[in-house]
Write a structure and sequence with these properties.
Blueprint lengths: L7 E5 L2 H4 L16 E2 L10 E2 L18 H15 L3 E5 L2 H4 L10 H16 L3 E7 L5 H7 L6 H16 L6 E5 L23 H25 L4 E7 L2 E4 L4 H24 L4 H9 L8 H9 L4 E5 L3 E4 L9 E2 L6 E2 L5 E2 L5 E2 L1 H15 L3 E5 L17 H20 L3 E4 L22 E3 L11 E3 L1 H11 L8
Parallel strand pairs: 1-4, 1-16, 4-5, 5-6, 6-7, 7-9, 8-10, 9-15, 15-16
Antiparallel strand pairs: 2-3, 11-12, 13-14, 17-18
Helix pairs in contact: 6-7, 7-10, 11-12
Amino acid sequence: MSFPKNFLWGGATAANQCEGAWNVAGKGDSISDHNRAGDRTSGTHRAFDLVIDTEKYYYPSHTGIDSYHRYKEDIALFAEMGFKVYRLSIAWTRIFPNGDEESPNEAGLQYYDDLFDELNKYGIEPLVTISHFELPFHLGKKYDGFLDKRTIGFYEKYATTLFERYKDKVKYWLTFNEINFGTMEHGKKINGLFNREYTETEQYQALHNVFIASAKAVIAGHKINPDFKIGCMLAYITMYPKTCRPEDVLKTQQVNEKFNFLCGDVQVKGAYPYFAKRYFEKNNIQLDITAEDKALLKAGTVDYYTFSYYMTTCIADDLDKREDKTGGNLFGGVANEYLETSDWGWQIDPVGLRYTLNQIYSRYEVPLMVVENGLGAFDQVEADGTINDDYRIDYFKRHIVEMNNAIDDGVDLIGYTPWGCIDLISAGTGEMSKRYGFIYVDRDDEGNGSLERSRKKSFYWYKKVIESNGEDLSV
């Protein structure tokens, strides 16, 4: 079976990882602007500073790859590849610098007007993430972010401002990026919980308030333009039991429910699943959920489901005691001896994507889109300037084959936007050396380089894939 004729081929980025210009034209500082670079060689991840000290530390988001000033050049390259869609995020603090202003920043709104016009010139559909780890720092500092219900209103005003301004320029929206981060201890910060130690009740209350904000945005967006398609976005970590021991299978089910299904159920089905309610009861997590909240969740369900997929992992009942662990996106697990790994220890599993698409679709039966997928790797620039990233081509080829197989299985898959279609800074460590793109950017881990763009071998390969609507995967 072939890909649908209207299949949305493209690529994905995030403002905090590519735009730079962190304090230009009235932009305020987001939580991402407080993340300084980590160091892969020493195994450290990005450190979060309450006070930004640019004299002492390097903050990668402050410069990114300078797409703020180079977006026309970048979009022209995307158009050359044949993109049908481009997933990007809007920097919340370009629109509302502190997050709680009465009026938006016109300079920020105009910037995205110009960007969308440039995409339209080439016939590229924008897919806009409203909040991609870019909560205004001020909202976290003053209100504890989404722990305070007032932040729901700040988000609703922000989203409504975007919907009204771009109602004729953007059709596809995503409310929050990787919303299920909020179920994790180290994911609290993205919801604004960084001033002190927070209880698990506070963690899930903040996540609940994010659900309400998302639902309100969906409702508002559909009123402003009934043709809007507004989706959710999750970081999907596909899990296999390490063995067929019933204990391993049960543990896998429990971890999978909490991380992968809880948020999807709330946003697609409009209510908390039974296992979440039971988890809250057992752990004395008492949330402020009103009757109005329940009605909003039911009324504000999303139109489609999107997710990131990079790897799979294995789960064992005795995970904490095992020595055969592996790294990965968000969290690792037990190593799978049947899979190869990337330079960063992420297990590469193309067949797992087919399994995942079927798992999600069988649960929700709404249109799906893979909005992040890719291989972070070291790229070597040859003496003649070429970059022969055959390893990346192989990664994408195998995953595209499995997407096609999932479509043949009956999955309603509508689009594919590989992550970091142009090299950008890593969300986990702030590095540039962990490259994902079809387009190379001359920038190193310390922020040095010309920022010049050049086409990798995979650029020409992906162009051919799009031209053939996924039929020609040859190198």
